[in-house]
Amino acid sequence: MRLENKVALITGGYGGMGRASARLFAKEGATVFIAGRSEERGDALVVEINAAGGKAHFLALDVVNQAQWDAAVAHIKEQAGGPHVLMNIVGSNALVRFPKVDIEEWNKLFEINVTGTLRGIQTCAPLIRESGGGSIVNIGSVAGITGNFSSGYSWSKWALEGLSRSAAYVYADWGIRCNVIQPGFIETDLTAPVTSNLLLKKMQSKVMNNTVLLRRSGKAEDIAFAALFLASDESSYITGTDIVVDGGWFSSAPYLANERSHHMLKLLDAKAKAKELMDDFLKNFH
To answer: From CA 71, how far away is CA 64, in angstroms rounded?
Structure first.
């Protein structure tokens, strides 16, 4: 098993991506601490994982509260000896944008998306070091490698990128790797209002078909498998970088919508075929 005898702490561990990651990590041998504010949701997932033969525990944690971070780490140390993996998923997608940015809402967004992650890294890193080293996996967004209409969200994810690379630099000699997963549109609890509405889902499916190379939105499990790779020793020579999990959106979106709406590849193939036929004709004619 890829995480045998490892201890993992996942913030937002009962949300879509967190839930899928917690299940997969436990299946691969990790003792998983699922952290969040909802004890009811956390306990339900813990019961499910333990019933399936895994090892899971719930921790009450608000990522903006340093005292709760301290208590969570102390509890993990007492119960399991210390984490080897920290996965930071908790984030806010509150709409804070130009042309009028509400500074109070801006500060709230950054406190969750950036400072909350900073608190986690800084609090857990010494214990990860004591545990023999490990991996920090931060969940960003393609909004953090592009521009986005949701200005505050995009800015916070760009900041998370810088934070993660700095952590990789500083903690390398502690035996700690730090990387970022940049998801595209992933079907999770946050996107449920879109995917559960038949009209919106149809519109979204058309957008995915025209802007994503793989012609679909992502699943929480797509993120979980990328996280498992980064959490495991299979990625022992990877740090300070990103894995973009977006079905090919980032690499092709500016061109793909135009190509697919105008069937440009088929037209180019038809043009090439016509040229080939004409060349054969002229060759035989002479």
So the answer is: 13
